[in-house]
Each structure stands twice: as structure tokens, then as C-alpha cells.
Amino acid sequence: MDTTNQTPAVFIKAAKTSISIRALVKSKSKYDFELEALEKKLEKFIEFDFFVMYQPSDGFVIVQKEDGDNAPLAKCIAIIEKHGCLSYDNYTDECI
């Protein structure tokens, strides 16, 4: 890339964009780390294969891996607090 005709403003703009991208990547890494840590904590209480994800319309949800059904994380945690665990039957009957 020939930079002889570019003004210093172009370089400053590129540097700011680079900093913004680095900040986004760092934030995404932290988000992924925290989500994985939450899944590890929930594993001992949930009796089926699942993962946690964020949906703009519903917030954080637990997704059952086999059929893709999802339910709000808050409802699932309430069932865990009530029953001590989240079975697939509790999940389908009380959360979805």
C-alpha cells in the first residue's frame, strides 16, 4: 500500500478504528469466557445437554441441544432453586 499521498488524518482514523476493533475483540473474549463459566456452574444442576446464549428478544436463554428448544435463563434458575436440579421434564413443562 502506497502511503505517500495520505494525510496524517487518515492514519489517525485508521489507528482509532484499530483500537476500537481491539476493544471489541477483548470484550467478546470476556463475554465468551463468562458464558462458558456460567455453563460450567450450571452443568451440575441441569440433566440434559444444553448451552446458554443471548437472544435480543428474550435475553439469556438455555437451549436444549437435542431439539433446539430454549427457555429464559431466569425461569430455569428458578426451577433449579425450587427442585435442586433442572430435568428435561421440568424444562419442557415449566420453562418453555
Structure description:
The protein has helices at residues 8-43, 73-83, 88-95; strands at residues 50-55, 59-64, 70-72. The protein is 57% helix and 16% strand. Strand 2 and strand 3 form a beta hairpin. It has a three-stranded antiparallel beta sheet with strand order 1-2-3. With 96 residues, it is α+β, with helices and mostly antiparallel strands. The model has no long low-confidence stretch (mean pLDDT 88). The protein has three helices and three strands; from the N terminus they run H-E-E-E-H-H. It is elongated.
Using brief descriptors, characterize the structure shown.
single chain; alpha+beta; 3 helices; 96 residues; three-stranded antiparallel sheet
Short overview:
This protein has 96 residues and is an alpha+beta fold. The chain has helices at 8-43, 73-83, 88-95, and strands at 50-55, 59-64, 70-72. The radius of gyration is 21 Å and the shape is elongated.
